[in-house]
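Q: Hi! First time doing this. I have a protein sequence and I read that you can turn it into a structure. Is that right? Here it is:
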Amino acid sequence: MSDAYVTLPLGDEDFSPSAPEQPGSFAPRPPPNLPHIMNNDGSGIRFDVSVTQPTKSGNGYQAYVVYKVTCKTNLEQYSSSEIIVNRRFNHFVWLHIQLLEQYPCYFIPALPDKSGIDPYFNRFDAEFIERRRWALQQFLFRLVNHPIIRTSKPLQIFFEGNEDSMKLPEEKKPSLFGSLFKDIGAPKVPKSMQDPEFAEMGLYIKELEDQLFEVHKFVERMVLRRRDFGSSLGELGLTLITMGTHEEKTGEEEAATTSKSFHDLGSCCDHLAINIQEQVKDEMEKTVFVLEEWLRIMEGAKEALRVHGATVAQSLAFMVRTSIAMSVVVGVNSVSQSDYEKKDRALKQGVPQGKANITESDVNEARRKVEESKQRAELLGQRLREEMMRLKRMKAVELRTLLFRFVEIQIKNGFVVTESWQRALSSVVNGIDPSALPGKTQTEGYV
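A: Yes, that's right. Below is the predicted 3D structure, encoded as structure tokens:
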């Protein structure tokens, strides 16, 4: 069975082969789980987190879910090497907001939506809670493996602080409608103000997001249809077993053999239905959930680009206002270095009150703001470049890992399906004259 696996050399020499290497071919090398990939950065910092045991607390509209968050680290800034706390979704929202405000232009993944927009949606549905638990755990994995964010004060407060230190103002609490309206009213940077380098980054993120969205849509559709098929197969199995019991009671000459065939085929269907449930669980966790997480990473990247664009726009706005102020005094339509020199001379000679009530301190303050905004834009621009490099490195490994896992699941379950149907076929045709069977060659070797 292992010989059927296809090699995916993912570039990590720590991978352990799962089967003996065959002459002339590579041995299959399953990639490790995502958290281990991300911890392997050579820094010597150990930072493991888990989000487990979601528990409903309260009643009615005031009800909420509490998660057990466990943190293990060797960072000296933490008071203990192992921390266990209970956290609500709002605490994750607080952490997300703090990081966006204090660490602009880092790719902070978006959080999962608070719930759906369906008024009949049950936010305490077990499947929804598990999906969110997984997403929140991966959100923390991203943070603790980021070279800058993992040492941040907000993250430490999240792990070690009390609930009073993480209170959200009412206007910042997550809406029941999730992120449906979050982009309404958001400032848009005119294309004329965009730097070509960062415009290209934005296009890269948009195209990647579009492709991820399409892959997620069809993978999830396939998995959900497989789940429905598994349910139908289980019902069929039960029906076949019931019919086998009925045949046994008829007392006919071939009743015992016929009854056994129905029972065996029904048991096969039931076995495969259980196997499909396990396959669906694997596919959800290792493909659908991972694709959803990458879509949230894209949201974080878009937010970083938006902040940078707004900073650049603000810098240009300061320059324009300064230009207008100086043109009033100097009498020019644009501002160059020589215009600043003219302005300095004009200030020394005195400015007529009729033209403008602008002092030297006003101009210096305007210049300071322009310079600060330019420096901030440059700093955030460099941060974006570094984050894009990190993103591309992660994508190269993680998306190929996703593909490996997907194919691995199909191969594993393909063997189970084939072997189960073969055993069922042997039981069904047992004792039947092969010459009486249609398509004789198709059943050869099974009888």
